[in-house]
Amino acid sequence: MYYDLKERFWWYGMKHAVAEYVAICDTCQRVKAEHQRPAGLLQPLKVPEWKWEEITMDFIVGLPRTQKVYNSIWVVVDRLTKVAHFIPVNTTYSGAKLAELYISKIVCLHGVPKRIISDRGSQFTSRFWEQLHNSLDTKLRFSTAYHPQTDGQTERTNQILEHMLRAYAIQYGTNWDKCLPYAEYFYNNSYQASLKKSPFEALYGKRCRTPLFWNQTGEKQVFGPDIVQDAEQQLRIVQKNLRVAQSRQRSYADVRRRDLSFKVDDHVYLKVSPMRGIRRFNMKGKLAPRYIGPFKILEKKSARRANTARRIGGTGGSDLHSIQVKILDTSERNTRNKKIKMCRVQWSHHTEAEATWEREDELKAAYPALFAN
């Protein structure tokens, strides 16, 4: 733009003026790809105070169907001890069925956790799941896109489990559910660099016996109040090791990141995740905008992150949590195993031409009043 204008015009500070104009151009901010280091330093979650007080959940999907009609794995990980449970499930399980498995596989072994961290999958955002944990006094914490540090432990566990399943499938075929108990046992009894011990050792105070150590169990004889003191000492060691590991991980990650902070009344754009086959603002696929906004920051909820915003323009300037939604049309997408119902949605302060296609189950979870009738 500068060289094109230079042929016909000139004024003092022309190059700087052109650069400033492009930098604040609304269309450019929505569609241009970012070539800078990722904004924001790593923000790891606080180390839990006790075992199985905070857990993370995720699903490994897309697996071949077994003889018992399992096609996915429910992975549950304790954030402190890193102990994991691998539960074979089917993607068609209802919220009531998942709740039954949760009680029988997790609660009966470790009690009711205080907080559960998960992604925003339809299984975890359903009304039944929310009401269940409200009755159990468990707080649900959902991770957001482009902030993987909130649920990175489960994602890493998923990778390790997938490696095990691939190795098993090479020799024994697709009945992967038969090897899940062995995979869970060897994962929990293996050394973890962040803990500097195995998850079983962090949970029980010693490693569980294996064929390699049947003659050398190394059991420590502890009696009376020494049991409590030993457990507390092991917990302090685990917490210290986790803090050291988090600090090391943060120092590595921050080298490739840049610090970014906002103030009240600043205007920001929000990055949207591209979804295959979904229309966003009358465009689909590669031509969809990368960012939406601008939004105005009203207040900071914490010293690190401002997460309350308001849309510029429009008549009411309503907050993001009170967006008015209108369904214009519906359709179905046929995948290999199921049908996904889609709704064409017109959002508040947007024209009908800017309506987007969204999944019906996600809309029901976010706006249940739309489907009351």
**First CA to last CA: what distance?**
54 Å
Report helical residue fraction: 25-40%
User: Secondary-structure element order, as H and E?
Assistant: HHHEEEHEHHEHHHHEEEEEEEEH
- In total, the number of strands is 13
Shape descriptor: globular
What summary fits the major beta sheet? 5 strands, mixed
Structural category is alpha+beta
Radius of gyration over C-alpha positions, nearest whole angstrom: 25 Å
Unreliable runs: 214-223, 304-322
Number of helices: 11
Strand portion = 15-25%
**How is the largest sheet built, in terms of strand order?**
3-2-1-4-5
pLDDT averaged over residues: 75
The oligomerization state is: single chain
Protein model, in words:
33% of the residues lie in helices and 20% in strands. The chain contains eleven helices and 13 strands. Strands 3-2-1-4-5 form a five-stranded mixed beta sheet, with helices on both faces. Strands 6-9-10 form a three-stranded antiparallel beta sheet. The protein has a three-stranded antiparallel beta sheet with strand order 11-12-13. A hairpin with an 8-residue loop joins strand 9 and strand 10. Mean pLDDT is 75; it is low at 214-223 and 304-322. It holds the Pfam family SH3_Tf2-1.
Structure, briefly:
The protein is α+β, with helices and mostly antiparallel strands and about 375 residues long. It has helices spanning about 1-5, 15-25, 25-30, 95-110, 120-125, 125-135, 150-170, 180-190, 200-205, 225-255, 360-365, and strands at about 55-60, 70-80, 85-90, 115-120, 140, 265-270, 280, 285, 290-300, 310, 325-335, 340-345, 355-360.
